[in-house]
Amino acid sequence: MNIRRICLIFFLVLWASGAAHAVTFPIPSLQLNLDTAKTPEEVAVVLEIIALLTVLALAPAILILMTPFTRLIVVFHFLRQAIGTQSSPPNQVIVGLALFMTFFIIKPVAQDIYQQSLNPYLERQISYDEAFESAQVPIRKFLLLNTRESDIALFVRGADMKKPETREDVSLLVLIPAYVISELKTAFIIGFVLYIPFLVIDMVVASVLLAMGMMMLPPVMISLPFKLMLFVLVDGWHLISSSLLKSFGV
To answer: Which of 10, 21, 57, 142 has its CA 20 to 30 A from that of 116?
Structure first.
């Protein structure tokens, strides 16, 4: 109790001395004003800021829906489930690998966008509208190369719009969801193919254990080392990564 009293007296003395010799620190002030817009240009600037914030908020979705990331992450998930390692490799490793492989695949498209639209726009050679239009060309080319025509026709009918005369006339609003379901179908097909050899190992191990009368022993416990050995012997990560890199049209 004496120690508490001494500490209290000490802080009171410090506070009193600080109050006697007050030191002012320059604290910046922040003012928010909501004034009525007087010209249409002021309203346009506000709308542009709102649109920019919306695009930044949707950037992760754009990365997932318009790049090879969807196919890669789904295939890696099926691979982990097929082997039987529920949390190895961890999600951070899987997502990181899928992101870097996405950068490798999408690099030619990004270079075309930079050379044809972004760099000329930054150098003030073309306007914003021209830059936006030219940026759509390599994106549309990539999406069309990796999208099934049946999926495009599905969303064209769903949007109740006129049938495009050429592939270049397909709107991005139709092309993006068609690309997503095409990627999901391709990823599920690859996942099914990946499951087959590991499923055979599980069936063989289960049959052997049943024949030996070891019904209480989980087959997964015995088959997991064999599946890991098979995956390592065939250099599975290299084989799957190279196949995925070559499966995209750029």
So the answer is: 57
